[in-house]
Amino acid sequence: MYRYLTVILSFLVILSCASQKRAKEGEVVEIILGHGRKAEMNNVLQNNARPVKGEMFTDSTHIKQLVYYLSSDEMKGRETGSLEIDYAAEFLEKLFVQNELRPYFSGYRDTLLNSKTTACNIVGFLPGQDPELRKEYILIGAHYDHIGLVNVINGDSIANGANDNASGTATVLELSRYFGKGKTNKRSLIFALFSAEEKGLLGSRHLAQRLKAEGVNLYLMLNFEMTGVPMKTEDYLMYITGYAKSNLAEIANSLVSDEPIGYLPDEDKFNVFERSDNFPFYGNFKIPSHTFCTFDFSNYPHYHRATDEPEELDYKHMSGLINKMIPIIEGLTNSPGQTVKLK
């Protein structure tokens, strides 16, 4: 296993996961950070604070740093309810603060009410810049938990979860950095990092039900899952689950110069649409809700194994995908009308 973090256990303060009420717009919420800040966490945060020069917003070096941190051995597979997933949650909160996201509730953590062990989603948002369109929300999400320890392979039992799903988490973090710093969004954006996906989509189910109960006017849900390696079987960049359920792929492809989003037949075969965090939002809101993915069932043999290591990922591919998604999401959040619809 790749040893990347130095975790200082003796001084870490575990942050509360207490369920919280919605923060008032403009309210400043201070997070009390744990003592004994880890050197590598600070390195990532320092790099995250620097703007990326050139035409492309993000680069492979920064993406690699995010993934290596989240999928290090010290995280022990980020299993829901573990001490280590709390380290990950603390890290994600710090990045949301740095990326200038507001807490959606009174803090970034929202406790799951449907989990037997303590589990928290990390939820931030950016209010829209248009006085009318800001009443509509687009949710951008990924799960940050994994499965912890698994069967030993070559003396290694830690399922690091680099592709599943540190890759999707890093994608959402970078998108939050772009929109948080630029504030180009006319519609409001919710950024949600789910826990307990591996326990049965518990984090996304909890948040979908809570937002529905609050009457949130949700327009789209865009989820990112296993985006760490390019596909072998197709010539497009990524696919969406539930391709035929809406016109999202058609609209998204029209917003960029090429057509990066395609249809993967195996996605239908394995019913991935109902097995990812997009599905609870589809079920509760009856809106276009899709997962963006590059796992084609033949390009990554490390799924749910101790070999799902950060060095197995293609960071140039990941940065290219994120840079491609930025104009797509800008187009979706800034269009005068709701162009994406269910079929």
From TrEMBL:
Sorted alphabetically, which PROSITE patterns does this protein's record hold? PROKAR_LIPOPROTEIN (PS51257)
**Which Gene Ontology terms describe the biological processes this protein takes part in?**
proteolysis
User: Any idea which GO molecular function terms this record carries?
Assistant: metalloexopeptidase activity
Organism (species)? Lentiprolixibacter aurantiacus
Show the Pfam families listed in the entry: Peptidase_M28 (PF04389)
CDD domains xref list: M28_like
Name of the protein this chain belongs to: M28 family peptidase
Residue ranges occupied by any Peptidase M28 domain in the UniProt entry: 121-318
